[in-house]
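Lab notebook, bench 4. Continuing the backlog of folding jobs that were queued last week. Each job is logged with the same field layout so the records can be merged later without manual cleanup. Today's entry covers D-alanine--D-alanine ligase, a 333-residue chain. Filled in by technician R.K.

JOB TYPE: sequence-to-structure
TARGET: D-alanine--D-alanine ligase
LENGTH: 333
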Amino acid sequence: MMPGMGVTAAEEPAVSGPETTDLHVLVLAGGLSYERDVSLRSGRRVLDALRAVGMQAELRDADVALLPALTADPPDAVVIALHGATGEDGSLRGVLDLCGVPYVGCDARASRLAWDKPSAKAVLREAGIATPDWVALPHDRFSELGAVAVLDRIVDRLGLPLMVKPAQGGSGLGAAVVRDAASLPAAMVGCFAYDSTALVERYVPGMDVAVSVVDLGDGPQALPAVEIVPRNGVYDYAARYTAGRTTWHTPARLEPAVAEAVAQVALAAHAALGLRDLSRVDLIVDSTGQPHVLEVNVSPGMTETSLLPLAVQAAGLDFGRVIGNLVARAAGR
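JOB STATUS: finished
OUTPUT FIELD FOLLOWS
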């Protein structure tokens, strides 16, 4: 078995057959977050993939019509392709629990924890998992204590360069690398446009990688790491979803021992946060080969440029069969 590769094409479990093709699957996508467009793209791809393996799937937005629909015609399982708060802060999962509707992915508690980056980083640090030093700064404290004094103290404590990003959010929205102190105020303002709390962490130079974790029935397994090389050096929203802005290498160009270490760290992060079914762990591998976890996503993107589908392909697996397997397992819970 290749380092960091949890399953091979030969090991892929079948998901077609009467017990799965008869399932009624609801794919939730859209929502009202800044990531609505990406979510719709993810949802449509999941929908097509499930239908390709014979499942009865439909796409629905998370709006006022959702609860009546769940009551009138409860699905056997839900795939949450919502990004941003709606799909990742645990609230929708809690509602699905109230309705008795099973879904792919972690439960509401774990989702809330992973969604809040400072809280998740604290749990990872307590578990002995390397993550860059950080400070979380609410906008109110930033204003009350004096922006200049606070920013000076941040630079003194964490040094430069820094990464500034929303404490809750995804897709690189509101994130910026700060290489000199003069650029920090603007980065904070940009961040606060997307969230009331900014996460400022020490920038670790190195290779950007993402490791997708899936559980197809034999426990969580790490798929091959995806190496991310954005053209402008920052993996922001445009780099993620605009063709030609980023080059991906799957598997990542890592020495076998480093690839194995990255896979094990991703699995440890998945476990420490209490996740299930699937997740995507974003990391930096520094010049010594040490992986540092940046954040963990419980509702990974599923678009044509998203990292989990790239990892599935690199593992020699069929995307529809993987998602179908996760759906079948959720329906059986």
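OBSERVATION: The radius of gyration is 20 Å.
SIGNED: R.K.
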